[in-house]
Write a structure and sequence with these properties.
108 residues, alpha+beta, three-stranded antiparallel β-sheet, globular, disordered N terminus
Length: 108
């Protein structure tokens, strides 16, 4: 039963994740049904200067790859992604240290 909570294919992790800037502690909160693919997508966009989040892109350009970490915050069922993302975003937003542009569910 637990396998379905994180995806039918064990290599695909359905989760809420964060990109954390190791220099200034700011985070980007997102959701995905395939963590590794989403991580690769973010990294490609950041490395080629094409990330849609301009503040995250600017900090990446300044600090480089080693300044960012990608972490699974919570593995969850696909039907709970929006709810969990909103909850984690609210948690981090109260400290004012997020890169997220739209701070509502389904935005990341």
């Amino acid at each position: 039963m637990h396998r379905r909570c994180i995806g039918d294919d064990m290599t695909k992790i359905t989760c809420i994740y964060k990109i954390r800037n190791r220099i200034n502690s700011k985070v980007y909160i997102g959701q995905t049904v395939d963590f590794e693919a989403r991580k690769r997508n973010h990294l490609w966009k950041l490395q080629y200067g094409k990330h849609y989040n301009k503040e995250l892109q600017a900090d990446f350009d300044t600090g480089g790859l080693m300044s960012m970490s990608f972490e699974v915050i919570e593995k969850t069922h696909i039907l709970l992604l929006d709810q969990k993302e909103e909850s984690w975003l609210a948690h981090y937003s109260k400290y004012g240290h997020t890169y997220n542009i739209v701070k509502t569910m389904g935005a990341g």
